[in-house]
Amino acid sequence: MEKSALQIARAAYQPKLPKALRGALKAVEGEPTQSVADQEEVQKLFPNTYGMPYLKFEPTKGEANNVAINVGVILSGGQAPGGHNVISGLFDGIKKLNPENKLYGFILGPGGLVDHNYMELTKDIIDEYRNTGGFDIIGSGRTKLEKKDQFDKGLEILKALNIKALVIIGGDDSNTNACVLAEYYKAIGAGVQVIGCPKTIDGDLKNSEIETSFGFDTATKVYSEVIGNIMRDCNSAKKYWHFIKLMGRSASHVTLECALQTHPNITLIGEEVEAKNQTLDDVVTYIADAVADRATRGMNYGVVLVPEGLIEFIPAIKALIAELNDMLAANQKDFEMIADSKKIAYVQSHLSAENAAIFRSLPESVSRQLALDRDPHGNVQVSLIDTEQLLAEMVGRKLDQWKKDGLYHGKFATQHHFFGYEGRCAAPSNFDADYCYSLGFNASMLIAAGKTGYMSSVKNTSKPVDEWIAGGIPITMMMNMEKRSGEMKPVIKKALVELEGKPYKYFVAHRTQWARDTCYIYPGPIQYFGPTEVCDQPTITLKLEHE
Hints:
This protein has 547 residues and is α/β, with parallel strands linked by helices. The chain contains 23 helices and 15 strands. The strands form three sheets. Strands 1-2-13-12-7-6-3-4-5 form a nine-stranded mixed beta sheet, with helices on both faces. Strand 14 and strand 15 form a beta hairpin. It is globular and about 80 Å long.
């Protein structure tokens, strides 16, 4: 593999580890845990892995444990910067436990486990990928591990390779699968531990023990760099309103963090829209008011940040989507038999009167996307809806009407952008390089401690790495029951933007000024070398949360 000058230089970077992981350590158990909600139902489904205690690693005197164990690793779901460092930390950790230990990577995600598609990850391979972006060392996939025959098929190859522990690196759905797998293997006495690792650039996999999911730091810095570039262009040409959609279907963490880094004129936070029970017209009017206000001072330009899941946060449309999902799940066979040209009419005739009216009121392009563009689980693919263009078009219509009524005298020209894939495989920031390496190394220590059904946890991450705290939490602790494809299932509860949280409150305190004035910040590219205040800083979200 050919390397750029940056890759060559980054290969020499040695990620930092928390003190507890540098030598001999002991596992200190804390209080027993319970799920965040639906305790009785979750406990019933996970009798062998429910209620386990918090775990914290502390330095101790003596020699490190000598544990002989082969380990498997899976990358699951969408890519996030730092995945390679999780694997390199895991590799170094198990080799420290015993140089004879082997690490096997399952190819293209959980499907590799089921299909017995794997490779041994040797030092030469690992060294090629240290501190690099992407998941290309073994690839990723979205196969869900949910069925007994999948678990049994996976167990065949785990036994054949003498693998005693499996690390699943993924988001909320992937770690839910990890929890189900851990429960099953423990219930049947398979002798295979399962450890999860918190990955998602969306930032919605977190709690008191998982302060941030890996990749969030790098991705938001990449997006903020490009937003800053657009702001500079915006401030130079002074003739366009730029509508920028950002990753984050189920939570607005990415959008909020990018706003804190760059100070755009308008930022929409889905959780706020939902809490205020706003309609689509309310959102459009809010933007139009800000556009009109700037126009009174000759500023016919600006930047609007939009989370990709905004549509689903609008209560009326959220209710419509929920009914759509249930209706199509219940009538899937009939729906598939109908010609595409008649599907819109079929949907309208099977919805309640209220939701049918909302469905008819949407632009045809959006109603078609809601009805026809479904993911493999039958759900609306919200990320495919061009929300940024929809909003720009509707704001333009409203301003045209205001102009006819003599209420608006400015100019409104737009540009549209969607920043998503650009941030998923970036070379990890120093923070993510250190955090991911620590998560992987920490996972090896959870394995050595004999744990299963735990998620690797590294916290106190707003402080220098020396002060980071390593340990683990039972995945069941993060569970609740939610309706998926028409059925109630146990899933990890998504962490949404806290409207009482410090990052959101800081944003609210400053957004009026950002809307009226031009307060743009241009963060520039991620810096990997130089003073710590430039290179090693965590996200503004993390700093504000732990002030």
